[in-house]
Inverse folding.
């Protein structure tokens, strides 16, 4: 028997950019409630909400100053309870973001920990610097570039922060911290939420603070990545809490191999239900995400195949709030609709839990930035300045951040072609993409040929189709420009064809079957070639 989370299509909401109900330019909970019917109609069965907690917004919610309260910009706890109720009434589950690797430096715990004698000192990693206190305690580097330590002028000591300087890492080997986290978990599960997306969960436990090996990025990784202590903690959370509430968990796991992912998700281990892995998001990267190379579709196909075969419960995603938009990345803006639909076919036909990111269903694209002040993301600024300090030319740094900035995903959702894309009646916190006049929900709703209606159709098909929900995956090799695979149960077999190139590609065999769906107008029932960005599903009658 499948669990509820194996049956549903998930949809990620980045609340700040989703829908603003009160005209302050910032998305909010009431805005989300106003779109629940839209989401229901789209066919999604569960929402992942990026952080709604109180936060000074250095990293827009991923720096939490109070876990047990809602950021007033988004509404109140009462609003959140309403959202839960309204979503559940529509049979939509809700999972929240759980950020426990770090808090904000404005969290009470951290403020108190600044005092060396406080019982909160050991909630974080406070250490003496080296070289007479002037240099960081070790050579670790941050995910957001530069050293992973920050000096506190007052006490002269340093604190560890793997992300921004306003995100001090929590010390999870302190049992008091673990108890605090359990309180937070119970608080929201008692309220009725259905699970958690666990932020950077595989780096939460630091086994030692020794110097890291010499690596180009993320020095120190071997001391905190996939540690035994992390497994131990997850098992504790899971057996004491998650399993008691039948809560679903998906861990964001940076730099994991299939084996490391299995170690976190194998049912016998009682840790997590699933993970977000990143390898398929790295196929167009050289070394780190800021250095993009040309996208080669076969690399994506091969990586997806590796994970489809390598892990029992996969998640499938091409976008989230940290990644540039997929249509111009794995697809093509020249073939916007076709390629967005091809990616949709892939997303919903692969084995595993599909996650759609807000706006993906209308093929929202990257933002045409033209000034550094357009960027709100702390990462874009720190990477830009870090690169400049290293002497990398302005022009190159500009190119790197415009292509890769997380703000590409965070521009407001385009609801209409009107003022501010219908996102807000005020001034949006992040600029709206000017293409909203053409690309918006209103224009695509009810338009049979639109990307939105294609998503709607395919989600509905998947919701009612056991082969897509539970069938085995098998890649059929044809040529490296196309991705052809079967999904099969005892009841039958579906064959899925996806061409992520702008050329017609010939297949080695002729495939025939009953046509189920396709992104070209003439849905075919036999294939010996695929047109540019063509995608199709047939019910197999075998090859001939
Ligand atoms: O986005 C990244 C690089 O641009 C990743 O390295 C990202 O920082 C990493 O995947 C962790 O992401 C999560 O934790 C961060 C937060 O900024 C991200 O938004 C969140 O998804 C720190 O909490």
């Amino acid at each position: 028997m499948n669990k509820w989370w194996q049956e549903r299509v998930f949809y990620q909401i980045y609340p700040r950019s989703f829908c603003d109900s009160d005209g302050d330019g910032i998305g909010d909970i009431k805005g989300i409630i106003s779109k629940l019917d839209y989401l229901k109609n789209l066919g999604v069965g569960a929402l992942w909400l990026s952080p709604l907690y109180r936060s000074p917004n250095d990293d827009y919610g991923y720096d939490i100053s109070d876990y047990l309260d809602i950021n007033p910009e988004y509404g109140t706890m009462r609003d959140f309870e309403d959202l839960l109720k309204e979503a559940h009434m529509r049979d939509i589950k809700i999972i929240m973001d759980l950020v426990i690797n770090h808090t904000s430096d404005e969290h009470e715990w951290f403020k108190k920990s600044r005092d060396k004698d406080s019982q909160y000192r050991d909630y974080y990693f406070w250490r003496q610097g080296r070289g007479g206190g002037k240099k960081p305690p070790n050579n670790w580097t941050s995910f957001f570039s530069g050293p992973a330590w920050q000096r506190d002028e007052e006490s002269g000591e340093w604190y560890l922060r793997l992300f921004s300087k306003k995100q001090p890492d929590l010390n999870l080997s302190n049992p008091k911290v673990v108890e605090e986290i359990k309180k937070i978990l119970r608080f929201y599960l008692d309220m009725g939420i259905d699970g958690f997306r666990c932020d950077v969960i595989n780096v939460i436990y630091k086994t030692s603070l020794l110097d890291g090996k010499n690596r180009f990025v993320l020095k120190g990784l071997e001391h905190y990545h996939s540690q035994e202590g992390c497994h131990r903690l997850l098992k504790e959370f899971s057996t004491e809490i998650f399993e008691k509430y039948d809560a679903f968990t998906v861990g964001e796991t940076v730099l994991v191999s299939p084996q490391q992912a299995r170690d976190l998700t194998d049912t016998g281990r009682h840790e997590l239900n699933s993970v977000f892995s990143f390898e398929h998001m790295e196929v167009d990267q050289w070394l780190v995400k800021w250095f993009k190379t040309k996208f080669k579709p076969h690399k994506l196909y091969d990586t997806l195949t590796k994970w489809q075969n390598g892990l029992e419960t996969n998640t499938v995603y091409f976008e989230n709030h940290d990644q540039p938009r997929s249509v111009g990345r794995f697809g093509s803006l020249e073939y916007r609709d076709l390629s967005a639909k091809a990616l949709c076919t892939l997303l919903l036909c692969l084995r595993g839990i599909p996650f759609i990111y807000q706006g993906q269903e209308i093929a929202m694209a990257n933002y045409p930035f033209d000034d550094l002040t357009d960027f709100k993301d702390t990462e874009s600024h720190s990477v830009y300045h870090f690169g400049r300090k290293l002497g990398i030319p302005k022009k190159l740094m500009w190119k790197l951040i415009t292509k890769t900035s997380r703000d590409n995903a965070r521009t407001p959702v385009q609801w209409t072609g009107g003022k501010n894309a219908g996102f807000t009646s005020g001034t949006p916190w992040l600029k709206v993409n000017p293409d909203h006049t053409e690309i918006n929900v209103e224009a695509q709703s009810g338009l049979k040929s639109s990307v939105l209606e294609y998503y709607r159709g395919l989600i509905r098909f998947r919701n009612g189709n056991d082969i897509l929900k539970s069938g085995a995956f098998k890649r059929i090799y044809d040529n490296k420009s196309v991705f052809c695979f079967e999904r099969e149960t005892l009841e039958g077999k579906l064959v899925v064809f996806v061409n992520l190139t702008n050329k017609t590609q010939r297949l080695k065999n002729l495939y025939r079957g009953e046509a189920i769906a396709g992104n070209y107008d003439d849905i075919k029932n036999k294939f010996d070639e695929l047109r540019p960005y063509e995608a199709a599903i047939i019910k197999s009658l075998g090859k001939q």
